[in-house]
Design brief:
About 75% of the residues lie in helices and about 0% in strands. It contains twelve helices and no strands. The longest helix has about 35 residues, at about 240-270.
Length: about 270
């Protein structure tokens, strides 16, 4: 025990970090465990009954589950593309240019992040109704709503990357006779790309996870969070845990692959 106490004392920060990570990932661990739960015939669907592979072999067994996942993925990808493109252009404009109203625009871009979702969702619903789309709520109104609230997060993320960019690198490229187009694609874009990628991943996760704004502007369209909310009235099927576990694995794999790629690039640069 004395050795353990000394190790913990000398690695206090590491121990604290590991405990925080464990606490954060407890819900993901529980979801992964429950994805192997056989809840057929059980009264309490939230208690582990017995181990089974059936949930993983038949993830689309509940009606409309996979179709709701596909809808969420489609909306998430399109919203990510739209918000990333618009937000990246806005971030470059706000960081690289000085113009009248720039401070006010920065404030306006932060408002969607600080506004409660119920307020934003009801405001967007009122906007769509005023535009004559009240009877056409569905896929496209959800997509427009997601793009609107994801833009702010993209702008903030890309702006932080641009703010830390060393302008001397672009000046050096210009000194080496590179024109503006070459400087952007050969120097600026590769340096800003990690921030753009991070913003895109954040936008996708926010879009895929959103419920309140989506519920107010969905019409008859059902996304994955809405399916889970509806199914919870009679008991969430265990296949929902399979989908959640798969999403977590994909996100974790993307982070690991990105980190390994960054390490390889750093080693390649250091070896030159």
């Amino acid at each position: 025990m004395t050795r353990i106490g000394r190790w913990i004392g000398s690695h206090l920060v590491l121990t604290g970090g590991l405990l925080v990570l464990l606490y954060m990932y407890i819900p993901n661990i529980i979801v992964a465990i429950m994805s192997f739960n056989d809840s057929s015939g059980a009264r309490n669907l939230y208690a582990f009954q017995k181990f089974t592979w059936d949930n993983w072999l038949n993830p689309c067994k509940p009606d409309n589950l996979c179709s709701s996942v596909v809808t969420s993925i489609e909306i998430g990808l399109l919203a990510t593309l739209g918000a990333t493109v618009i937000g990246t252009f806005a971030a470059f404009g706000l960081v690289r240019h000085r113009f009248r109203g720039r401070t006010a625009m920065n404030l306006v871009l932060f408002l969607p992040m600080a506004t409660p979702e119920i307020v934003m969702g009801s405001s967007l619903l009122a906007l769509f109704v005023a535009a004559g789309l009240g009877g056409q709520l569905g896929f496209w109104t959800i997509l427009l709503a997601h793009i609107m609230f994801c833009i702010s997060f993209v702008v903030v993320t890309v702006k932080s990357r641009l703010a830390g960019l060393d302008g001397n690198l672009e000046q050096a490229a210009a000194d080496l006779y590179a024109n503006e187009w070459q400087t952007f694609w050969k120097v600026t874009f590769p340096l800003v790309f990690p921030g753009i990628l991070a913003a895109a991943l954040l936008a996708f996760s926010l879009s895929f996870d959103d419920f309140i704004i989506t519920n107010l502007n969905s019409g008859q369209t059902v996304t994955f969070p809405m399916y889970v909310w509806g199914a919870s009235q009679r008991g969430v099927p265990m296949q929902v845990n399979v989908i959640g576990t798969l999403m977590f694995i994909v996100a974790l794999a993307a982070v690991i692959i990105g980190e390994l790629g960054a390490r390889r690039r750093r080693k390649a640069i250091a070896s030159r």
